[in-house]
Amino acid sequence: MSRAHTITDWDPEDRIAWDGGGARIARRNLIWSVVAEHVGFSVWSLWSVMVLFMPENVYGLSTADKFLVAATATLVGALLRLPYTLATARFGGRNWTIFSALVLSVPVIATIVILANPGAPLWVYLVCAAATGFGGGNFASSMTNINAFFPQRLKGWALGVNAGGGNIGVPAVQLVGLLVIAVAGNREPYWVCAVYLVLLVVAGIGAALFMDNLQVPTVDKAAMLAAVRHRQTWLVSLLYIGTFGSFIGFSFAFGQVLQAGFRADGDTAAQASLHAAQIAFIGPLLGSLSRVYGGKLADRLGGGRVTLVTFGGMILGALVLVAGSTIGSGSVPVLVPGFILLFLLSGIGNGSVYKMIPSIFEAEARSMDADEAARARHSRAMSGAVIGIAGAIGGLGGVGINLALRASYQASGAATTAFWLFAGFYLLAAGVTWRVYVRRPTAGAAETGPALVPARG
């Protein structure tokens, strides 16, 4: 336990060093990064569970208000991904993981207090939801940190495991909520928060004992500014809006859409809440697991092809939701398969898009007139910066989903209009993927993998 926690000379591309102990160090950091990110995701999505058990006559929040609460948490989590991307370079991956886990105890305690004392005005719930959004920022710092630990040939797998393990925090908190309700009843959902206070302490202590800080160039302000000016940053971010934005947006909204569907089918408010909670975790769970396989598929087949097929399937899934939302009573049996398909495909797309990022900048580095060390620094810094930027912008897609659903329910009492918007966006993303990353490139384009060939710019 007295070992040093700072590594000053780290080169994962050195196969001799990797096989001689580097792989073990990287895996140890990956494990605890997943744990901390997992708990962070759970706290970020805490209100997606709480709102299912907040009757309007007790807490005073309408369906539209609850979508606004979800959108607020999503927005803050997305915006914080930019500063969190820089945090690991400034403070160290181990140090920042400890801090980012333990600081989440503040909004968790606040949630307990607020739910135990119903009747607060809407702004109180919005502020508390915004504070849980700090858990969403953990994703960017965790992914940037793990990106630096693993060699190019394993990044798709490592980033997929790290992100997938974090994403499972969404269904995990929903399952914990269902368990608490089964034991304590639906009048005291804030006991879910007590569980996560313990898990936050475990994550913080585990990071302190077993993680390391890397003193190697990763991401800095110069890399972030260069990434902002890079055409590929915005193209990849657009695709990530469609994949991760869908995953996190639907994770927050799925339970509420189901709840509205069960009410339309004749359930009482209490029955609708319980039935929605029993199903809501399935979609995020499958989406989290499929993310790992999306990264592995992209390693083998190329990120472009996998992403294109993903968006083709998501268009179909959105059209199933349109059909389900237009038939009125009895819509739940149609909505559930549509959402499950979207969760599965968005998870695969999350993995494939994030594999594209290091591939793009590895190829760009190979074309540079520089020595091998400079090329490695460029690839690592740009990949880390774009991971953070794309993660932030992708998270904003989740905000858009919740706001679109809120507007659709306010206007017509149904989600049909929002589902049409989602289908249109997936069509746009599929077109961009085909044009930039799959279609044969023009002369001078950078080769980035078996099926991932972006235009230069």
From TrEMBL:
Pfam families recorded: MFS_1
Origin superkingdom: Bacteria
SUPFAM superfamilies found in the cross-reference section: MFS general substrate transporter
Membrane spanning stretches: 30-55, 67-84, 96-116, 122-140, 161-183, 189-211, 232-254, 274-294, 306-328, 334-354, 385-405, 417-437
Topology of the protein relative to the lipid bilayer: Multi-pass membrane protein
Main location: membrane
Keywords annotated in UniProt: Membrane, Nitrate assimilation, Transmembrane, Transmembrane helix
Subcellular location: Cell membrane
Domain Major facilitator superfamily (MFS) profile positions: 235-457
Coiled-coil ranges per UniProt: none
Family: Belongs to the major facilitator superfamily. Nitrate/nitrite porter (TC 2.A.1.8) family.
Protein name as it appears in the record: NarK/NasA family nitrate transporter
Originating organism: Skermania pinensis
Source lineage: Bacteria, Bacillati, Actinomycetota, Actinomycetes, Mycobacteriales
